[in-house]
Write a structure and sequence with these properties.
This protein is an alpha+beta fold. Helix content is about 30%, strand content about 40%. It is built from four helices and six strands, in the order ααββαββββα. Strands 2-1-6-5-4-3 form a six-stranded mixed β-sheet. The radius of gyration is 16 Å and the shape is elongated.
Length: about 140
C-alpha cells in the first residue's frame, strides 16, 4: 500500500465527517460543496437526481429541525467511504402527511460515497425509518 493511498482514504473519511458536521449545523451548503458536478445519488437503490436529493434534505430539516447525526462507524476502501449513522431528532414539522408530534425519534442510515479528486461522484444510502415512523405514529408500534 502506498502512503498516498492511505492519505487519500484518510482525507475522504475526513470529508465525510465534515459533511456530517455540516448536517449537525443544519448547513446543507456544507454538504453540497463536497459533491462533484453531475454527482449520482441512489436512495434505497433507486436513482435520485440532485435537485430531488436537496429537496428531500430540506424537507427533513423542516420536519426535524434539531436533527443530529452520530457516526457509529466509518470505513474507507479505495475510493469509497461507508458510514453507519444513527440520527436523533424531534418531530417539529409536517412529515409524510403527519402533523408535528413533538416526539423525540431515532432512525438509522448507511451511506456509501465514492470520491474522485476529492469530490463525491456517487452516493448511496439505505435508511431504516421504521423506528422514526413508529415514533411519530405513522406506523403502529410492534408488540
Amino acid at each position: 500500500m502506498r502512503a498516498t493511498d492511505e492519505q487519500t482514504r484518510t482525507e475522504n473519511k475526513q470529508r465525510c465527517l465534515d459533511m456530517v458536521a455540516a448536517w449537525n449545523r443544519w448547513e446543507l451548503g456544507g454538504i453540497i460543496e463536497h459533491w462533484a458536478p453531475g454527482v449520482v445519488h441512489y436512495s434505497e437503490n433507486l436513482p435520485v437526481d440532485t435537485d430531488e436529493m436537496i429537496s428531500r434534505m430540506e424537507a427533513g430539516l423542516q420536519a426535524f429541525p434539531d436533527l443530529h447525526l452520530d457516526v457509529k462507524s466509518i470505513l474507507a476502501d479505495g475510493d469509497r467511504v461507508s458510514l453507519r449513522i444513527t440520527i436523533t431528532a424531534t418531530h417539529l414539522g409536517r412529515y409524510v402527511d403527519k402533523e408535528p408530534t413533538g416526539r423525540a425519534v431515532t432512525w438509522h442510515i448507511v451511506e456509501e460515497l465514492r470520491f474522485v479528486d476529492g469530490k463525491v461522484v456517487e452516493h448511496w444510502d439505505v435508511m431504516n425509518y421504521l423506528p422514526m415512523l413508529t415514533g411519530i405514529g405513522v406506523l403502529p408500534a410492534g408488540d
